[in-house]
Amino acid sequence: MIPEKSATEIRDEVSRAYTQAVAKVPEGRSCCCAPSSCCTTPVGVAAQQAGYGEELAEVPASAASSSFGCGNPLAFSEVRPGSTVVDLGSGAGLDLLIAARKVGEEGKVIGIDMTEAMIEAARRNLEQAGAANVEVRKGLIEDLPVEDASVDWVISNCVINLSPDKEQVFREIARVLKPGGRFSISDIVAEKLPDWLREHAAAYSACIGGAISEDAYRSGLEQAGLTEVEVGERVVYDAAQLRDIVASDLEALGASTELLDAGIEQAAGKVWSAKFTGQKPV
Predict the structure, then answer these.
(1) Do 230 and 206 touch, CB atoms closer than 8 A?
(2) End-to-end CA distance of the chain
(3) Which has more pLDDT, 137 or 14?
(4) Could you report the per-residue pLDDT of 92-134, keeping only the tens digit for each?
(5) Mean pLDDT across the stretch 186-193?
(6) 2 domain residue, yes or no
(7) Does residue 42 register a pLDDT over 50?
(8) Dihedrals φ, ψ of 238, to 5°?
(9) Within-domain flag for 56
């Protein structure tokens, strides 16, 4: 039995994996939670597979190539000019740039990330794009450096599954939203995974090991006081897609690939991306 890891140990492993992953982008490759894209997909294709379309033509290529998401939380959203948006785990800034265009000059976008390499990448991309209405803050999504009831929208893309305390993240979302404020979250959920997959560092960093069930995710949001919680989109991953997802992080962490075929078939059809939406009551 593998000893239970502390929250700090989990965050350190995740931060190390994503620091190594973003360092590969200048080589023209991308690693991410999206299927069939990790470290093998040309620049920008990973983002397209995750649900982005014409938005990619309006952002720097470096932001698109560094997409680590499993969906597009801003697709079909009702973000309006003048809104304030917070992005949990903002990474290299793709969703920040898209949100910046939606809120306009009178609006504001705040990115939160714990990994210094990601923050630096995001700031470079924001500067290149001339996005003056965006700032990136270093912090944990379990303890957001954001004032109470101060934002109109919370978005997140394949990040909350990495948190060792998801219930606290859900409470933080409720705390920072204004009454009537909304959230749109794309994330990975899973059912009945093999123990080895839950316990392996690479599987956790690949957005699988720490994933909870869709029902638990919905329940966590509702218990935090959020309402009208709905799941509007789902993409279920097959064995080949799961191999791609886990293999990239095994490589990034220098881990053995022997576990892949030992249990990946058991996980096929039990892991999927889902888009959660809802609001804070008025």
Answers:
(1) no
(2) 46
(3) 137
(4) 898 999 999 999 999 999 999 999 999 999 999 999 999 999 9
(5) 91
(6) no
(7) no
(8) -90, 180
(9) yes
**CA–CA gap between residue 268 and residue 87 (Å, rounded):** 30
Burial zone of 219 (CB within 10 Å; 0-12 exposed, 13-18 middle, 19+ buried): middle
Identify the weakest region by mean pLDDT among 97-101, 141-145, 199-203, 213-217: 199-203
The CATH number linked to 224 is 3.40.50.150
Q: State mean pLDDT over 188-207.
A: 79
Q: What angle do CA 280, 126, 84 make, to 5 degrees?
A: 20
Range of the domain at 54: 7-279
**How deeply is 249 buried, as exposed, middle or buried, from its count of CB atoms within 10 A (0-12, 13-18, 19+)?**
buried
Q: Is residue 86 predicted with pLDDT exceeding 90?
A: yes
Question: What's the number of CA atoms in the CB half-sphere (13 Å) around residue 196?
Answer: 13
226: pLDDT strictly greater than 80: yes
Q: To the nearest 10°, report the CA torsion of 192, 196, 202, 203.
A: -10
Question: What pLDDT does residue 266 have?
Answer: 81
**How many other CB atoms are there within 10 angstroms of residue 4's CB atom?**
8
In a domain, 237, yes or no: yes
At residue 200, φ and ψ (nearest 5 deg) are: -85, 135
What total of structural domains would you count in the chain? 1
Lowest-pLDDT range, 47-51, 248-252, 262-266? Answer: 47-51
